[in-house]
Amino acid sequence: MVSLWPATLGSFVWVTLALAVASNQTFDAECYNSPLPNIPPANDTRSIPWGTPGVELANGTTCCDSIEEVRARIADTDQQILQLLGERAGYVREAGRFKSNRSSVFNQAANDVVVQRALNASKADHIPETIAVEVYNKILETMLAFEYCSYDSYHSED
């Protein structure tokens, strides 16, 4: 009996590779509106695998010349994001004081406006749309739980 397994496996590998290449092109178009560079995988750390540093800083210089610099900049950015999320949480807590009842805490129309505003800003700031939408949906989801908690604490006497 002749086994078809090797031929089937070979076809599967080629189809899988073709789909990976096609899906990467779709991903590039949907997320970045342009193709990403095709860089072959490697086990070594590359200083700059293509082009020149591409992040322009406020002072007019560019970043980054090493992975360590990238990581340091990401850590700085993460700290700023956390500070802004803390500020946003303070406003969410305050919003709970103005809600007339618990059912008014969730407002889908207001959330839709927030996500649309993030989506519009993402285009101007060159942020992939998928990141803007997913991040803002998650922020709204977690802040909603916090707002319910805040509302309940303000209105515990009711």
Automatic annotation (TrEMBL):
Species of the source: Rhizoctonia solani
Signal peptide span: 1-18
Coiled coil segments of this chain: none
GO biological process: chorismate metabolic process; salicylic acid biosynthetic process
Protein name: Chorismate mutase domain-containing protein
Keyword Isomerase: yes
UniProt-listed PANTHER family: CHORISMATE MUTASE (PTHR38041:SF1)
SUPFAM superfamilies: Chorismate mutase II
One of the record's GO molecular function terms: chorismate mutase activity
Record key words, sorted: Isomerase, Signal
Keyword check for Signal: yes
Location of the Chorismate mutase domain: 61-151
Cross-referenced Pfam families: CM_2
